[in-house]
Amino acid sequence: MTTKLKIERILPVAGQGQYILVRPTVSGQEFTISEKTYLGNVELDKHLDIPGKIKENGDPDVDLYSVKLKNDHEVFRLKEDTIVELVPGNLPCLPPWHFVDSGLNNQLEKEIGRGHVLYGRDVKTIARRQDNDDVLFAVFDAGFKYAKVHLTWSQSKLVDNCYPMTKTYRDWADVYENLFVPDNKDWN
Predict the structure, then answer these.
(1) Which branch of life, at top level (predicted)?
(2) Per residue in 94-114, pLDDT tens?
(3) Best label site of 52, 123, 137, 154, fewest CB within 10 Å?
């Protein structure tokens, strides 16, 4: 399903973009990069390479990989020496959810007040439910990685910090098992 990777180095390559050197937390664990693959909720380009690094004993370091960011400006969301989740592109949203590229961050910011769990957080729109106003946001600077928010489309901050209603998820597996699968069952 997902793979945990440690970010070893972040390397800007002149004229080519941002490359990230990563290592699986479990030695020898295999993974692939395809369209819509995310490293710590930052989309990757379809690039995976094993850099020519040699271990101290002279053997090639086959657990070190180089991946390229699709959008270089999102590099600030990744930090060296951190463990991040690699979410493969073959884990689709299940209906009624669908991935979206357009951000609903501005609407979220209009609605949440100081006491809301997402106030002041770095968030990015990931998916939206097609039959209501539920939106899934990636959260980059909290103990949880995702939040489902039921937007109200208010044009001003809501006074009650319980609104807009929000549920948090620890990782992609939690989202998939406890949001997408149950919603898909109800949908069918």
Answers:
(1) Bacteria
(2) 999 998 877 799 999 999 999
(3) 52
